[in-house]
Amino acid sequence: MTFHEVFDEVRNVFMQADVSDYKGHLALQVNLQGDGQGTFYAELNNGTLNVEPYEYYDRDVIFTVDSNDFLKIVHRKLDPVFAFTVGKLRIDGDLGKALEIQKLIKN
User: Fold this and answer.
1) 78 three-class SS
2) What is the per-residue pLDDT for 106?
């Protein structure tokens, strides 16, 4: 898959999440590796969500992961905590905020 195909698939899943009750700010950047290599960000800000195919410089956390593994995480076929534990997912930044990605993929 190309980066744009991976991004579109992830964005579609994220945008289905009900974040209307989210209070606060969370900015996460995802650096995809392998097939579909590229960078995008998701920003939650007081109940609104933006997902864009750009680098985000004022981020709380950065995920670095193979694009295929990230798609598995997004489609709930790979637990993000397990992926982190076995080294498939690298997290830089606030680990507490990193866990909030589950709010975007709980559907």
Assistant:
1) coil
2) 66
**How far is 3 from 21, CA to CA, in rounded Å?**
30
Place of tokens 């993000």: 80
Q: Is the dihedral of CA 22, 60, 42, 14 positive or negative?
A: negative
Gap between the Cα atoms of 91 and 99, Å rounded: 10
Neighbouring C-beta atoms of residue 25, cutoff 10 Å = 12
Question: Angle CA(98)–CA(26)–CA(51) in degrees, nearest 5?
Answer: 95
Task: Count each helix (H run) and each strand (E run) in the chain, helices first.
Answer: 4, 5
pLDDT tens digits for range 43-86: 999 999 999 999 988 899 999 999 999 999 999 999 988 999 99
Edge to edge, the sheet with strand 25-33 lists 48-52, 38-45, 25-33, 61-66, 89-93
Residue 65 CA to residue 104 CA, distance in Å, equals: 17
Res 12: pLDDT:
94
- For strands 25-33 and 48-52, give the pairing: unpaired
